[in-house]
Specification:
- By secondary structure, this protein is α+β, with helices and mostly antiparallel strands.
- It has one domain (about 1-75): Alpha-Beta Plaits (2-Layer Sandwich), CATH 3.30.70.
- It has helices at about 15-20, 50-60, and strands at about 1-5, 30-35, 40-50, 65, 70, 75.
- The strands form 2 sheets. The chain has a 4-stranded antiparallel sheet, with helices on one face. It has a two-stranded antiparallel ribbon with strand order 4-5.
- The mean pLDDT is about 90.
Length: about 90
Amino acid sequence: MNMYVGNLAFTVTEEDLTAAFSVFGTVAGVNIIKDRFTGQSKGFGFVEMPDNSEADKAIKALNNSQMKDRDIKVNQAKPKSDRSKGGRRPPRY
């Protein structure tokens, strides 16, 4: 299961997330989203755990928990096609 992890402190590393999630099972991958120009964390990322039951335990335990003085948000990531478009207007011509 792919999980969204939000409200991360800018100092949180992929190693920090791996350590936190590996308590609940196997972590297949971690990706913190960074600004393409500055390289600084955007404050969110994704963690992939192959076993859904382990991922569910991690979500229940880590959602609203503290990591580096921030209450992080953890939930199942939604595929791009399932997310809303954010109310964008059509272009004007």
